[in-house]
Amino acid sequence: METIEPFRHLRRVYCAGPLFNEAERREMVQIAEALRAADFDPFLPHEEIQFAEVHPSLVELGMTPAQAGQTLHDAIFALDVYFVILGCGSLVFNLNGRVPDEGAVAEATMAWMLGKPMVFFKADSRSLIEGRDNPIVVGQTDFHLVDTMEALGPELDRVIGNGTFEADAPVPCPPHVGRTLRKGLAFYEKLEQLGAEPPAGPTARIVHELFGNSRSEPS
After folding, report:
1. pTM for this one?
2. What does the radius of gyration of the chain's CA atoms come to, in whole angstroms?
3. Is residue 121 within 8 Å of 95, Cβ to Cβ?
4. 132 by DSSP, 3-state: which?
5. Per residue in 137-161, is it b (16+ CB within 10 Å) or e — as a string?
6. Distance between the two ends of the chain, CA-based, in angstroms?
7. What pLDDT does residue 53 have?
8. Is the pLDDT score of 42 beyond 90?
9. For strand 90-94 and strand 118-121, is the pairing parallel, antiparallel, or unpaired?
10. Please, how many CA atoms are within 13 Å of residue 68, restricted to the half-sphere of its CB?
């Protein structure tokens, strides 16, 4: 079994949460700004690449719309897993919404299983059970939530200070996770070569190269 070193970048924070409309994206940007003001380096996945803009370019490269959609999903998964596990050393989860964002739940759980420092934010009165949130989710931070953005940075500092997070302490990595991490890292490195706000055409060619042959036409 391989090993990984998931705590190299403790102050680079993966910002997990809903991103399905302008208000949600704006709130995630505000969370990132609050963390940046506290001397953290926030990572917002939707700022790394606009996948909706890449889909037409994949179709222009000869994929069917269904193939392009599945290929993008493969790319999104690999890049996301890489950033949660290796690219970022800590995580903040925005729980606002009628229910927690399902992708963010998966991201937080990956981080929790590795023992990464995490803070959960909620300033929303909606909940699952009599004023309480799903215990399988909020139990990951011992049922502790913060309800103001200004508290995010200090709370994450507290969690980091209370833990023992060694950059050179490897943890086991199952083979299937290792394969995904290598794909995500290769994707990230090629995106970095394109610079900030990579254009759709070159990004599509990278996605096609790395993920285009990973599976057949979806049924």
Report:
1. 0.91
2. 18
3. yes
4. strand
5. bbebbeeebbeebebbbebbbebbe
6. 34
7. 87
8. yes
9. parallel
10. 18
